[in-house]
Amino acid sequence: MKIDLKRRWKMCAVTGAVMALVAGMASTVPSAYAGGTIKVDDDKFVSIGMGTRLSFNAVEDGSASGGQYSNSFGVNNARIYINGGIHKYVKFAFNTECFNCAVGGGGSAGTGGSNQFGRDSNIGILDAIGQFEFNELVNFWVGRTLVPTERGELNGPFYHAVFDGFRTPFNQADFSGNFGAGGAGLYGRDNGAVFFGKIHPGGTHLQYVASVFTGLQSSATAGPNQRNSLKYAGRLTWNLLNDESNPGYYTSGTYYGAAGDILALAVGGEYQNAGSGSLANKSIFGSVVTDLLFEKVLPNNNGVFTVNAEFKRYWAQDLAAFGNADCFCMFSGTSWTGYALYLFPQEVGIGRFQPYGRYTGLNSQFAGARQEFELGMNYVIAGHNARISTYWRTGNIGGTSTFNGQNLNYAPGSTGQHVDSFHVALQLQY
């Protein structure tokens, strides 16, 4: 890691200027929202919305020369939301995503690529869900939907308390965009069925979720799952104070104090026989996750304090599988993350400032330990619907050759590359 104090001071100055500019726009920027609902009656309707996440990223040693910071603007997400009701108990959700937008487009230099902007991007199906919602106790979702294990996955990118919430190792359904042979899911989604409901023992609030999904698939000659074993996942969330109110079994990383005091304790996990490894060296895939959300609205209008914490244990392929070309090789070991945020009560311009700090660590069974520190500032304009974030990272979870800012190589002998990075990001949705 090379220390460039001049560059860091320049980044701090840019960040301050951006925040000051936004805060000073209160008297000049009008409120404008898009979207709407076509309603036939209380049971029949269609609603349309959108969401986009954009960022500027500067990563140490990330330039083409390998000796300077990269400088790039990117589209992290671009989604269209379509939801509707057909019957009192029957609804649907159909959402799209710009897949690989964050990767960038164009052909690589010297490869003869067509250099078409966005060549590697495409709009595709993110969610396609039939929703049978009968009452608080019994509900079923069927189709392509989120696998219910951890709060981080169920927040999705738009409802994390920070811009990039995905710093711990990925699950099966995060690794592959291929739902056919050799695929395991996409963006935390898979094809399957989910049962969920909620009870209120002793004045508390207990949500239960159980599901079955296709999981990892394999061909007759490659991959571990020739028997087409299914994947099972579930989650229990116990809210000891106020209840969380979210669509279905989804979650949020913060409510900015709007839900009052929250203390949510949860445990989840997933299992698939032959869900990792290779044809020659099959292994189960299993995970156990515990997570916590604590949010306290401080008395006398003194702001909101929020804590998120998570611990994961993964069981995946054995050592021998790494030598096979058809290995669906995943992280195996433990990981943890925790972050604390404070939302100031006073508005500055059109929003409120929310500083935070975060630590993430992981210990791979085959590749040793890695860690990362993050310091950032959110400028909260309209909760999760309009937020500007700026943050700095240092650690060896990422690298210059990464997916979604993570180094996914946990093979024996691999190490994380220590890098500093600086980010400014915008999130908008309706």
- The average pLDDT score comes to 88
Number of helical elements: 2
Q: Helix proportion of residues, in percent?
A: under 10%
Provide the gyration radius in Å: 22 Å
Strand order of the largest sheet: 2-3-4-5-6-7-8-9-10-11-12-13-14-15-16-17
Low-confidence stretches: 17-34, 105-115
| CATH superfamily caption | Porin
> What structural class should be given to the helix and strand makeup?
mainly beta
- CATH hierarchy, class: Mainly Beta
Oligomer: single chain
Give me the CATH fold name.
Answer: Porin
Describe, in short, the structure shown.
The protein has 430 residues and is mainly beta.
Walk me through what this model shows.
The protein is mainly beta. It has one domain (5-429): Porin. 6% of the residues lie in helices and 46% in strands. It has two helices and 17 strands. The protein has helices at 5-23, 151-155, and strands at 36-39, 45-59, 72-87, 90-99, 122-133, 139-146, 189-199, 205-213, 231-239, 262-277, 282-297, 304-315, 333-343, 352-364, 368-380, 386-395, 419-429. Strands 2-3-4-5-6-7-8-9-10-11-12-13-14-15-16-17 form a 16-stranded antiparallel beta barrel. The longest helix has 19 residues, at 5-23. It is globular. The two termini are 40 Å apart.
